[in-house]
């Protein structure tokens, strides 16, 4: 079955530490891939997206993601987390106009 | 410029009733998508409309319907409400149909079904 999996429900990192959020998908072909962030009172915001080409994608707010076809993964990274990065993060895929989101990873940032 | 707006902000209904949710896209955007986000889960795609035509539909029962108006605003209708319809309903707008253009999300309508 087609699915998007975010294995980590909740992650806690210290401010200034690096971050990696995992995302795996299960589709026959490479779908379009996205990462969104949802903060209270802010709504969902697109961080970055991958369609084709360079497998390392740069996004807003210092985030990047790497597409790895062999692992069916699209992990989100940030070298140094800020307290304002605390939020819910969603990986999403679009496979032929079928848009699906993962269940999300909640990020807590410790001072 | 105004972002995506949704009304109402909150809504309380009882089982069996129907509800209409409204969305106004960003000026110049011709596509609107609707999502349902149950507490603790990711958004689930319900519909996408582009130029007043349905371009995509998620796995939702026929109780859910939508339409897009000539000014590109949109309504989502849900009939015969069930307790499980309680959720945050999100609207997103983009320039064109499909999902390759960036989607801009509204703040959502919180629906509670009692």
Specify the helix fraction band of chain B. Answer: under 10%
Largest pleated sheet of chain A: 6 strands, mixed
Most extensive chain contact? A-B, 21 and 23 residues
Low-confidence runs of chain B:
none
How far is the N terminus from the C terminus of chain B?
Answer: 37 Å
Identify the overall geometry of chain B: globular
Assembly form of the protein = heterodimer
The average pLDDT of chain B is 95
Topology at a glance:
The complex is a heterodimer of chains A (111) and B (114).
Chain A (H helix, E strand, L loop, with lengths): L2 E3 L4 E5 L4 E3 L2 E3 L5 E8 L3 E8 L5 E3 L5 E5 L4 E6 L8 E8 L4 E3 L3 E6 L1
Chain B lengths: L4 E3 L2 E4 L5 E6 L6 E7 L6 E7 L2 E5 L6 E5 L5 E5 L8 E8 L9 E2 L3 E5 L1
Parallel strand pairs in B: 2-11
Antiparallel strand pairs in B: 1-3, 3-8, 4-5, 4-9, 5-6, 7-8, 9-10, 9-11
Protein architecture, described:
With 111 residues, chain A is an all-beta fold. Chain A has strands at residues 3-5, 10-14, 19-21, 24-26, 32-39, 43-50, 56-58, 64-68, 73-78, 87-94, 99-101, 105-110. In chain A, the strands form three sheets. In chain A, strands 2, 5, 6, 10, 11 and 12 form a six-stranded mixed beta sheet that branches. Chain A is globular. Chain A starts with a strand and ends with a strand. In chain B, the strands form two sheets. In chain B, strands 2, 4, 5, 6, 9, 10 and 11 form a seven-stranded mixed beta sheet that branches. A four-stranded antiparallel beta sheet of chain B has the order 1-3-8-7, with no helix packed on it. In chain B, a hairpin with a 2-residue loop joins β5 and β6 (53-57). Classes of the chains: A mainly beta (111), B mainly beta (114). The A-B interface holds A 4, 32, 34, 41, 43-46, 49, 51, 90, 92, 94, 97-104 and B 33, 35, 40-45, 48, 55-56, 58, 90, 92, 98-100, 102-103, 105-108.
């Amino acid at each position: 079955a087609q699915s998007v999996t975010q294995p980590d429900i909740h992650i806690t990192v210290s401010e200034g530490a690096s971050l990696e959020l995992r995302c795996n998908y299960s589709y026959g072909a490479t779908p379009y891939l996205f990462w969104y962030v949802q903060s209270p009172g802010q709504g969902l915001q697109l961080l970055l997206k991958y369609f084709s080409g360079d497998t390392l994608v740069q996004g807003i707010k210092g985030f990047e993601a790497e597409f790895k076809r062999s692992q069916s993964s699209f992990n989100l990274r940030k070298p140094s987390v800020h307290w304002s990065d605390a939020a819910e993060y969603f990986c999403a895929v679009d496979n032929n106009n079928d848009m699906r989101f993962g269940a999300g990873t909640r990020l807590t940032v410790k001072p | 410029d105004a972002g995506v707006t949704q009304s109402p902000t909150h809504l309380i209904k009882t089982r069996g009733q129907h509800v209409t949710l409204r969305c106004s896209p960003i000026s110049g955007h011709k596509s609107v998508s609707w999502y349902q986000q149950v507490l603790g889960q990711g958004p689930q795609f319900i519909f996408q409309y582009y130029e007043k035509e349905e371009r995509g539909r998620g796995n939702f029962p026929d109780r859910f319907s939508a339409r897009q108006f000539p000014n590109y605003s949109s309504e989502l209708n849900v009939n015969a409400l069930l307790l499980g319809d309680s959720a945050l309903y999100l609207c997103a707008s983009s320039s064109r149909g499909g999902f390759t253009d960036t989607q801009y999300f509204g703040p959502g309508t919180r629906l509670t079904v009692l």
